[in-house]
Amino acid sequence: MSSEITFEKQNKARMENYYLRNRRNIIYTSLEEIEDTDWFWCPSEIEKFDNLWNEGKPIKEMARELNRSEIAVFLQSLDRIYRGKIKPRDWRIW
Fold this sequence. Notes:
By secondary structure, the protein is mainly alpha-helical. It has one domain. It is built from four helices and no strands. It has helices at 2-22, 43-54, 59-66, 70-82. Helix 3 packs across helix 4. It is elongated. The protein starts with a helix and ends in a 12-residue tail after the last helix.
């Protein structure tokens, strides 16, 4: 019985050591402060976005035409590139 208790204590100590060593006291949330970004797009907006992108329009112009912030358009471009829906540019997109 004492060997079971010892084994249980050792496991508990290992778990506590792991969680204490890897515990995060401060958690940073990316893009949390961006107030003017709308994260939701309807299919017609996405289609218009893709067309503007494929025409080579700069993000500033796309933002005006889509009535979105430049940051929202930029983030949408990253999402569309990641999903393979549009081709990346040479990153002179502004």
